[in-house]
């Protein structure tokens, strides 16, 4: 009941819009900063390999697969990473601010936060991750006052036209439709 209220209430949508704009600004600002100031993830990646997240008592690496990924994929392809991280951060921010593809932007924001945390960077990542979860949990209500609120009715109509067959086509029977069981 609470989740339904959170996903459908207009006042929640207004509050989530403010939260979405704040989080979006954080992503867009830092992405733009990296795009314009020249971003190099090489040092960060080397540090993540040299000092992986480890258990304090046993010094056992907690995310060995992720450390392996950084060492064998990310670091050799650092030029790609140098392009994708700033562009991704900027686009996540734009999506959240405008409310366009809101859930997609929130998902990729949370994914980047997790990746940064697995590499050992705390910074603002837990906070942005928690706020991203709130936005993502709001579902379609998160984009209600944004581009999603305007675009989704058109997308739904087009989707229904394409995938819901009617007028005697095979497979046209649907519960409650004009070909429902008599």
TrEMBL record:
Keywords attached to this entry: Membrane, Transmembrane, Transmembrane helix
Top-rank lineage group of the source organism: Bacteria
Indicate how the chain sits in the lipid bilayer.
Multi-pass membrane protein
Main subcellular location of this protein, as a coarse class: membrane
- The reply to whether Membrane figures as a keyword in the UniProt entry is yes
Q: Which residues cross the membrane?
A: 90-115, 127-147
Q: Name one GO cellular component term.
A: membrane
Task: Tell me which InterPro entries the record gives.
Answer: DoxX
**What are the subcellular locations of this protein?**
Membrane
Question: What is this protein's name?
Answer: DoxX family protein
Its source organism is Cohnella xylanilytica
């Amino acid at each position: 009941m609470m989740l339904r209220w959170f996903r459908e209430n207009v006042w929640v949508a207004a509050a989530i819009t403010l939260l979405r704009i704040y989080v979006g600004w954080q992503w867009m600002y830092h992405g733009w900063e990296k795009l314009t100031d020249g971003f190099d993830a090489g040092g960060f990646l080397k540090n993540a390999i040299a000092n992986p997240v480890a258990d304090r008592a046993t010094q056992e690496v907690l995310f060995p697969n992720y450390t392996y990924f950084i060492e064998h994929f990310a670091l050799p392809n650092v030029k790609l990473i140098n392009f994708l991280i700033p562009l991704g951060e900027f686009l996540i921010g734009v999506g959240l601010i405008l409310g366009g593809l809101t859930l997609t932007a929130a998902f990729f924001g949370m994914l980047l936060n997790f990746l940064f945390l697995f590499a050992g960077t705390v910074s603002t990542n837990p906070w942005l991750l928690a706020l991203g979860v709130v936005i993502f949990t709001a579902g379609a209500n998160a984009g209600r006052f944004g581009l999603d609120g305007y675009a989704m009715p058109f997308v739904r109509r087009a989707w229904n036209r394409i995938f819901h067959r009617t007028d005697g086509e095979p497979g046209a029977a649907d519960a409650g439709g004009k070909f429902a069981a008599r």
